[in-house]
Amino acid sequence: MDNRLIEEWFEQYEKDVTSYLVHYMGTMDVEDFVQETFLRALRKTTTYKASAHPKTWLISIARNLVMDQYRRSKVWNKIRQVLLREQSYSVDMDQRIILNEEYRYLYKAIHRLSPSQREVIILRGIMEMSSKEASVVMKRSENNVNVMYHRSLKQLKSLLEMEGDEYGGI
């Protein structure tokens, strides 16, 4: 399979993928998802099975993109909820500003971790998956996931402390 075939599929199925995404997401703002769908198809041409219809394969890719995006936003909402639980519900404006800064520190610190550290923090710490569940997702042993999680938490804490020191404490 080559680029020309993906280009042909784009011409044939772009409207179907766009329509699916508009209905699935409930918004007309799906251009980035459509483009990413075809880019992923191009990168994953070796996984395409000729017995599958190209349109269903492309829509499956689009669906997975949306689900990935949903999971990422769900993760960040969970982080916010965890942080908010630790705060009083009667937060004044100064406290809100501080809380927003803490989100920023946490977000930056998590993104400074290695991809595997970030993944284990998200799976175990934020999504509250068991070691066994996370080991299946990460394709690692349970013991490896536990060790990695412990080390990643330590690294995250260190990064948060460094961020706090840089910006006057968090």
Q: What labels would you give this structure?
A:
single chain, 7 helices, 79% helix, 0% strand, elongated
Summarize the structure.
The protein has 170 residues and is an all-alpha fold. The protein is 79% helix and 0% strand.
Explain this structure to me?
The chain has 170 residues and is mostly helical. 79% of the residues lie in helices and 0% in strands. It has helices at residues 3-25, 31-43, 54-86, 93-112, 115-126, 131-138, 142-166. The longest helix is centred in the middle third of the chain and has 33 residues, at 54-86.
Topology:
Layout: H1 3-25, H2 31-43, H3 54-86, H4 93-112, H5 115-126, H6 131-138, H7 142-166
Helix pairs in contact: 1-2, 1-3, 2-3, 4-7, 5-7, 6-7
- How many E-type strands? 0
Would you tell me the overall average pLDDT? Answer: 79
Distance between the termini: 53 Å
> Whole-number radius of gyration?
20 Å
Major pleated sheet = none
What is the share of helical residues?
Answer: over 70%
Unreliable stretches: none
| Inertia-based shape | elongated
Structural class: mainly alpha
Strand content: under 5%
SSE order, one letter for each helix or strand: HHHHHHH
Q: Tally the helices: what do you get?
A: 7
